[in-house]
């Protein structure tokens, strides 16, 4: 007998029975496979059932195809359907949107360490030297080192460079005075003012006159494009395997924009050793000198590199200019839209400063109504409406739902600060609601946190507050403002990672002060 026959005989299996047994085994394997698939499906379904609710998506794309370009208002409308925490399937990534104070508190305070990392986008990485800045660097020793560097912009340091701010604001007053009776673009000019303050603090350079106005417009266009790209949904972020192809060209565009700033940074950095060597800048106290010294003498464990230095400059130029100038533009538009607010603001300025004097920063703490105007502007027009998206370092629970590790978390501060259950007449611009002194920018109250909260709260709050208060006080004290003949005021917003006014504010200044020399 053959070996097979011997085996069959030994196991008491006849040749006629073999096909039936093989078929049985095959069916058993199919059954086990089916059970395994069902178990995996049930497990996934159970896991999904623990996630927040959300709109049904389509295969492969999820909810990507239904996203609206105005994400802040679109997410607000979805929250009215699915509740204050909901889920979106963004390609291969899960997006979680929270839009209530209690849930924001859980993300930004109760689980602050878990959510301490920002979800780095391809555009953000390209704009920040591979994510080497204070915004995108993961929480840890390197981030703490960068945050420590940024803390030099404290009140003492800001006091020491007041004359820089004063000089640039006075230049802006002169610019508007020379164009009395003619329409001026307020946002564009204020961008130039803030940019000059920041660049002067960084390396002592300013751009003035007609050349400055032209360069300021170019800079604003570049910064606006950069923030727009960072807020634009990008296939590379939702399908990481496709990132290398840059299908929308967002990384390529951002690389080109970032290189324009990088060339400026290189020029200023390369000039500095030469200036210092020749003894022409020994007394300079600008940020560049401070950083270069820190780079040479810094901690060897977490050194400040040239890449870090440039990335911090990018944060200051991109993050510091448009947020402040856009807020000032919104503030001016809201004030011009409410004559009683204009009247109260200017009456306060006349009582504190007088029409025979000019505004100084020392006046600011005596102007509670003006402070309320800024706070109300930041409530209605949150500078970063969805904050910078967070990314949990581990799976956790928020609001009773599972938040997976690696998901993208949006905190809709824009919606929270317009919530009718929190704010009376939330869409009405009413500075009086801030006169009780209850609200501040610390992020401790999750009904009002325009600069974020927790470990990753905005690092430039002190600088932004001073610049906005001083600039707005000066504009309203020095001039009356009206729209060009036949124009209507439009307060429509345009979404980006930084919120901006959709239609630029163009207005005509008229002098208010008695002495023309105060405009020089």
Automatic annotation (TrEMBL):
Query: InterPro entries attached here?
Result: Cyt_P450, Cyt_P450_CS, Cyt_P450_E_grp-I, Cyt_P450_sf
GO molecular function ontology, one term from the record: oxidoreductase activity, acting on paired donors, with incorporation or reduction of molecular oxygen
Entry keyword annotation includes RNA-binding: no
What are the entry keywords?
Answer: Heme, Iron, Membrane, Metal-binding, Monooxygenase, Oxidoreductase, Transmembrane, Transmembrane helix
Q: Which residues form a coiled coil?
A: none
Cofactor dependence: heme
Transmembrane ranges, per UniProt, are: 20-41
Q: Which SUPFAM superfamilies match?
A: Cytochrome P450
Question: Which residues are heme-binding?
Answer: 458
Q: Which family does it belong to?
A: Belongs to the cytochrome P450 family.
The entry's protein name is Flavonoid 3'-monooxygenase-like
State the taxonomy lineage: Eukaryota, Viridiplantae, Streptophyta, Embryophyta, Tracheophyta
